[in-house]
Amino acid sequence: MNGPYMSGTPCWIDLMVPDQQAALDFYRDLFGWQGEVGPAETGGYSVCTLKGKPVAGIMRASNPDGTVPDPMPPTVWTTYLATDGIDSTLKSVTDAGGSVMMGPMDVMDLGRMAVITDPTGAAVGLWQYGTFAGAGIVNEHGALIWNELSTGDTAAAAAFYSAVLPISTEKSQMPGAEGYTEFKVGGRAVGGMMDLAALPAEVPPHWLPYFHVDDVDSVQAAAVRSGGSVKAPAFDMAAGRMAVLADPQGGTFAVITATAPEQPA
């Protein structure tokens, strides 16, 4: 990726965990990421890289004053959507029935961020780029390839995201993906949405990152060897072969070996 992402496009992901170094070690071994605990002025935030390009952030769970939260928040990956103007986007968020969880705030000269909750209960970040546009490599082994919203009200979610960002929604035309919704920016699919009813009852609305891997089954086995767990064992589906995994601290993510869409003869 060169240059900024179009507004509405997932552009970054980060993970908040109790044990930052353990998470850095796990994802280094699983995906080949490089990263270390960052400087104090950034709260220790680590920008992980792959082939020298930023791919994801990992940070220690802490209160604003640096103390350890009690109770500890759940370990989750946060998806960030690009925006050209975070303040105007936040106004649209509240007008459309969403809420602001955190922000807006400046992150040095890197950009401005906020975290919101959509009307269906799913949390998602917003990123207005400064000197940092977001993920510098995507769609390769160990890098982000897709972001997916699971929600109990797909119609309400579609209306919300279309109201706050230049996102359109369209039912997937991929054979075998009937009922799946694609988020589009500039006519290009940049993410997806599925009905929460397809998941276990205890799973809340959420955004899930997908990482491209060359061999889903071997990555699944490696995750388990490193103390991770399997939420959905490797299976074949319309877009390729995938699995849903969790790291040892509970951060859930998907891995996929994506297949190119079949072209008409």
Overview of this protein structure:
The protein is α+β, with helices and mostly antiparallel strands. Helix content is 16%, strand content 40%. It contains 4 helices and 15 strands. The protein has helices at residues 20-31, 86-95, 154-164, 216-225, and strands at residues 10-17, 46-50, 53-60, 76-82, 99-107, 111-117, 123-129, 143-151, 168-171, 181-185, 188-195, 206-212, 229-237, 240-246, 252-258. The strands form 2 sheets. It has an 8-stranded mixed β-sheet, with helices on one face. The chain has a 7-stranded mixed β-sheet with strand order 2-3-1-4-7-6-5, with helices on one face. The longest helix has 12 residues, at 20-31. The radius of gyration is 18 Å and the shape is globular. The two termini are 31 Å apart. The relative contact order is 0.16. The mean pLDDT is 93.
Fold topology:
Blueprint: E1 10-17, H1 20-31, E2 46-50, E3 53-60, E4 76-82, H2 86-95, E5 99-107, E6 111-117, E7 123-129, E8 143-151, H3 154-164, E9 168-171, E10 181-185, E11 188-195, E12 206-212, H4 216-225, E13 229-237, E14 240-246, E15 252-258
Parallel strand pairs: 1-3, 4-7, 8-11, 12-15
Antiparallel strand pairs: 1-4, 2-3, 5-6, 6-7, 8-12, 9-10, 10-11, 13-14, 14-15
